[in-house]
């Protein structure tokens, strides 16, 4: 693996989120995810919504005519006409309310379907390779990716679906009533109403821009506040030992205050937008009379008597008012649109970062041509039985986000049977070297070649902090494989039980009530640190890789247990790359790499076993 760039990712200065071209680009990109093909489910739903909304308009029009027909039948005392009109009215009202409910129902279905499409799309990139690690640990420019994927996507889809049926109809109603208005008032009506709308849009855009950037900031603070609660939830026991309730209360409240302060500021900005929207709504209602007043006062209708003039005013006022109300409805959507724009920016930023990270991951993968993905090993168990797992050529390593040098010009070959122990003081870069071997960090200089694959027959890492997923005991042991490997049914059960016993965890089986018993506990809460390390070893024995990378994997265990676990690893034919502080580890290794900080290192041979 040839890696030129160091691991440092800077804080980039992104432009303030606005209602600008960037918004349109990001919105367009999200729409392409929501509507990938003409035949996609979302497009079909959208077309159904369009048909229902159009049908609804037709029925509304018919319902609107009914009152005037009542005048007719009541005026002429036509009882049978009254009965049939009432029957028609009831039918239309039932159809109308059904269509309205269907409209709402389809909007809700679209919200769910959009959320599914967008979230699954983001998940596809987020969980690709180590993208989730880079994004959460190394990138500082995209805050709270979890919040963006869960809450921001949810709100974006909800707001967009609430706008959908109004937006979808506007081109039709606008064209129809523009034509009607033109027929009644000539060019003056539509032109002045369009001009009014343009002014309204420009003013609203000015009022909306600060809202968009404030909303983006508010969502960041919302994510920070949630993260604080999550931190306490995950570390509840440690916090309780510190009696941290008071200090954490103060810190959590501080985040809440900051969030609420921003929310209040956002509302202050929204107030101006609401004033703008309401002013345009009410001004619109008198605009129709202004449109008619101009020809009247300029003498165009000088030859009409008052009765003819009022008939003309009433006719023109109706179409103008309708056209204006179509535009007002669009202006009313400004508040929702500014929310949608804020979420569009947050999701768009995440999307862009995910795409660039995934591109980088793909480039890396094609460069190394090695099988780095655990998913693939279930299909193709690694057949690259290379004698050498890692080859490092003049590798230098610095801290991300700073120039502090950890390792300089390291040449190292890790091959079968040559167990390597990495030692050194705290913070000298032992785990960082493993991060480079694991492909999580790039080296600043030099080449890192991984000549085998991950998983059974390849390399397995046991990180310093054990990782457990939700699920049964079997799922913990076979992790990160999704299926039993090898696919051998009960024989596999025997292997798992045997390895649990070897790891000293037979009693855990009794506590869980069996390998496949669903447990709703959090593994981190119910296992002691030592038990977590034992369970990690049971996993390692099960996967039985050719190379095992152990980062202080026995730090919570006694030397005696450490001895047993290491002996089992050796018996199972694993080559070990360990990081540890204990001298008792030396006897299991044939090489010791000592890191001394500031780039210095020393490789020596030991007696080993
Ligand atoms: N994501 C990160 N961003 C910036 N600096 C980091 C990051 N992770 C670790 N570091 C820093 O890198 C240095 C080396 O860390 P590393 O975890 O490799 O130390 P170590 O030698 O394994 O220490 P220990 O013996 O305590 O496990 C430390 O100074 C640490 O603070």
TrEMBL record:
Signal peptide positions (record): none
GO MF term set: ABC-type transporter activity; ATP binding; ATP hydrolysis activity; long-chain fatty acid transmembrane transporter activity
UniProt keyword annotations, A-Z: ATP-binding, Membrane, Nucleotide-binding, Transmembrane, Transmembrane helix, Transport
A single GO cellular-component term on record: peroxisomal membrane
Domain ABC transporter: from-to ranges: 392-609
Transmembrane segments: 43-61, 81-99, 271-297
Pfam families in the record: ABC_membrane_2, ABC_tran
Highest taxon listed in the record's lineage: Eukaryota
Family: Belongs to the ABC transporter superfamily. ABCD family. Peroxisomal fatty acyl CoA transporter (TC 3.A.1.203) subfamily.
Name by which UniProt lists this protein: ATP binding cassette subfamily D member 4
Organism this protein belongs to: Pelodiscus sinensis (Chinese softshell turtle)
The gene coding this protein: ABCD4
């Amino acid at each position: 693996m040839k890696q030129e760039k160091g691991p440092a990712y800077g804080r980039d200065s992104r432009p303030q989120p606005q209602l600008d071209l960037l918004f349109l680009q990001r919105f367009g990109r999200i729409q392409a995810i929501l509507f990938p093909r003409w035949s996609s489910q979302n497009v079909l739903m959208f077309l159904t919504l369009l048909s229902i909304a159009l049908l609804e308009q037709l029925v509304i029009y018919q319902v609107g005519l009914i009152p005037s027909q009542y005048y007719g039948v009541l005026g002429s005392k036509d009882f049978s006409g009254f009965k049939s009109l009432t029957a028609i009215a009831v039918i239309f009202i039932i159809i109308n309310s059904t269509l309205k409910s269907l409209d709402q129902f389809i909007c809700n279905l679209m919200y769910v379907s959009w959320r599914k499409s967008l979230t699954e799309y983001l998940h596809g990139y987020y969980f690709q390779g180590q993208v989730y690690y880079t994004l959460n640990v190394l990138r500082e420019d995209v805050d709270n990716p979890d919040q963006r994927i869960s809450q921001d996507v949810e709100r974006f889809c909800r707001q967009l679906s609430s706008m959908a049926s109004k937006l979808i109809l506007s081109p039709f109603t606008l064209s129809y009533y523009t034509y009607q208005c033109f027929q009644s008032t000539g060019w003056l009506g539509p032109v002045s109403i369009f001009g009014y709308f343009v002014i309204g849009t420009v003013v609203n855009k000015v009022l909306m821009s600060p809202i968009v950037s404030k909303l983006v900031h508010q969502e960041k603070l919302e994510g920070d506040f949630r993260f604080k609660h999550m931190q306490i939830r995950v570390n509840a026991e440690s916090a309780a030992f510190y009696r941290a309730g008071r200090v954490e209360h103060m810190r959590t409240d501080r985040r809440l205050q900051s969030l609420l302060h921003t929310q209040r500021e956002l509302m202050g900005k929204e107030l101006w937008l609401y004033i703008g929207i309401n002013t345009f709504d009410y001004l619109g209602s008198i605009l129709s009379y202004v449109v008619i007043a101009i020809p009247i006062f300029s003498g165009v209708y000088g030859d009409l008597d008052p009765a003819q003039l009022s008939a003309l005013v009433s006719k023109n006022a109706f179409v103008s008012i309708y056209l204006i109300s179509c535009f007002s409805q669009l202006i009313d959507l400004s508040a929702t649109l500014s929310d949608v724009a804020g979420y569009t920016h947050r999701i768009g930023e995440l999307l862009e970062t995910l795409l660039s990270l995934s591109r980088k991951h793909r480039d890396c993968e094609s460069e190394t041509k090695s099988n780095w993905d655990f998913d693939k090993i279930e299909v193709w168990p690694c057949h690259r039985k290379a004698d050498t797992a890692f080859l490092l050529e003049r590798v230098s390593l610095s801290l991300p986000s700073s120039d502090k040098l950890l390792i300089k010009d390291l040449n190292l070959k890790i091959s079968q049977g040559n167990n390597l122990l990495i030692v050194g003081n705290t913070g000298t870069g032992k785990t960082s070297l493993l991060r480079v071997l694991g492909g999580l960090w790039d080296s600043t200089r030099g080449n890192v070649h991984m000549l085998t694959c991950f998983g059974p027959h390849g390399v397995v890492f046991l990180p310093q902090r054990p990782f457990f997923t939700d699920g049964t005991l079997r799922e913990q042991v076979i992790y990160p494989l999704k299926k039993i490997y090898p696919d051998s049914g009960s024989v596999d059960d025997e292997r798992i039980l045997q390895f649990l016993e070897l790891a000293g965890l037979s009693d855990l089986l009794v506590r869980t009530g069996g390998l496949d018993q669903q447990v709703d506990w959090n593994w981190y809460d119910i296992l002691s640190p030592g038990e977590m390390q034992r369970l990690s070893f049971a996993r390692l024995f099960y996967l039985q890789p050719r190379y095992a990378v152990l980062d202080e994997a026995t730090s919570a265990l006694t030397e005696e247990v450490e001895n047993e676990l290491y002996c089992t690893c050796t018996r199972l034919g694993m080559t070990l790359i360990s990081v540890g502080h204990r001298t008792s580890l030396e006897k299991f290794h044939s090489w010791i790499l000592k890191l001394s900080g500031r780039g210095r290192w020393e490789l020596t041979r030991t007696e080993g076993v």
